[in-house]
Design a protein that fits this description.
- Helix content is 42%, strand content 13%.
- It folds into two domains: 190 residues, 3-Layer(aba) Sandwich (Rossmann fold); 80 residues, Putative methyltransferase TM0872, insert domain (DNA polymerase, domain 1).
- The two termini are 39 Å apart.
- By secondary structure, the protein is of the alpha/beta class.
- Helix 6 runs antiparallel to helix 7 and helix 6 crosses helix 9.
- It has an eight-stranded mixed sheet, with helices on both faces.
- The chain is globular and about 80 Å long.
């Protein structure tokens, strides 16, 4: 049984406009809180595809041995089907292939909760609150681990990870302290790593609202699981598989993820990508000024304008918007939810609708 509390549950399910008989993707099964609510909304006549790279999440959700429910497919993806639910052990960045393997051409809604469930944080070296072996991988079959990164990556590589994925302003100091420490002994546990990080943080920053190791641990986890790469691959696919009027909802928990979601939503809502009229006008004026320098008459200038460069203020790319943005500003948890689940404090929900 899951101990995880789903975040923004009511808001996400309500704004997805779910109805009986719909086909829905829960791209991040996790503890299954959102998944169960989706099933209630679409009923027995609907279809649910729930995806998670962590096989334990699938086993916990099913609450019975899943091996007898293997769904055969030509893509060699581990899919388990019972009743109206497909449980998929794969990365959500493979969404289009997953749906092809099942035989589904379009869906009415997609939900992705980018946070890790409380169950998945247990025993994997995700947190500095417990002394555990450094691991942090969601897919237990992969070779890359947190231990491998902190003990083998160069100082420059570590600094880049901490700065880009953790937005850590002391990234250089932390990377230097780690590389100095590992000259004498290998870094094995979360407590050991957290203590090293602490020595790299100036004293006045050690007693803030968050633990000094928070951003660095987040950055390493993201690097281990390639979370940013997978998110950037997933969102365009999620938009493509939606039927017109279908909605995509994404819950993020840190600013880097939220920026990616916001920017990709905007790119797909924009349509035309031709330069703005002001830029084109400046181009036109420069073109005419260059002709005038050559000593042409007013008549010649008029002819030149009609036969001018192919970049005047009209759309030539033909790109049409794919979505409209439903949430102009992200939805955040209400005070009531924050009181029950403090971990939800950084959650942001953004939703777009397929045109």
């Amino acid at each position: 049984m899951s101990i995880h509390k789903p975040v923004l549950l009511e808001e996400a399910v309500e704004l997805l406009n779910l109805k009986k008989g719909m086909t829905v993707v829960d791209a991040t099964l996790g503890g299954g809180g959102h998944t169960r609510e989706i099933l209630n909304s679409i009923g027995s006549g609907g279809t649910l595809i729930a995806i998670d790279l962590d096989i334990n999440a699938i086993k916990n959700f099913a609450e019975f041995p899943i091996s007898n429910f293997k769904f055969p497919n030509n893509f060699k993806i581990s899919i388990f089907k019972f009743e109206n639910t497909y449980l998929v052990n794969d990365n959500f960045s493979n969404l289009e292939v997953i749906l092809k393997a099942i035989g589904i051409n379009g869906v009415n809604a997609v939900l992705a909760d980018l946070g890790w469930s409380s169950d998945q944080l247990q025993g994997r070296g995700m947190s500095f609150m417990k002394d555990e072996q450094l691991d942090m991988k969601l897919d237990q079959e992969q070779e890359n681990t947190a231990k491998k990164i902190v003990n083998e990556d160069s100082q420059e590589e570590l600094e880049k990870i901490f700065r880009e994925f953790g937005e850590e302003k002391f990234a250089r100091n932390i990377a230097r302290k780690i590389t100095e420490y590992r000259k004498n002994r290998k870094i094995e546990t979360t407590k050991e790593l957290a203590e090293i990080i602490k020595t790299a943080i100036p004293g006045k920053y050690k007693h803030g609202k968050i633990n000094p190791a928070t951003r660095t641990f987040q950055a390493i986890r993201i690097a281990v699981n390639k979370e940013i790469d997978n998110l950037e691959k997933f969102i365009p696919q999620a938009i493509e598989v939606l039927v017109p009027g279908g909605r995509l909802a994404i819950i993020s928990f840190q600013s880097l993820e939220d920026r990616i979601v916001k920017n990709i939503f905007r790119q797909n809502a924009r349509g035309c990508i031709c330069p703005p009229a002001s830029q084109l006008q400046a181009s036109q004026e420069k073109y005419l000024a260059d002709i005038e320098k050559e000593g042409f008459s007013a008549v010649d200038l008029e002819k030149a304008l009609r036969a001018g460069p192919n970049d005047f203020p009209e759309c030539r790319c033909g790109k049409m918007p794919k979505v409209k943005i439903i949430t102009k500003k992200p939805i955040i948890p209400k005070e009531e939810e924050l009181g029950i689940n403090p971990r939800s404090r950084s959650a942001k929900l953004r939703i777009c609708e397929k045109i």
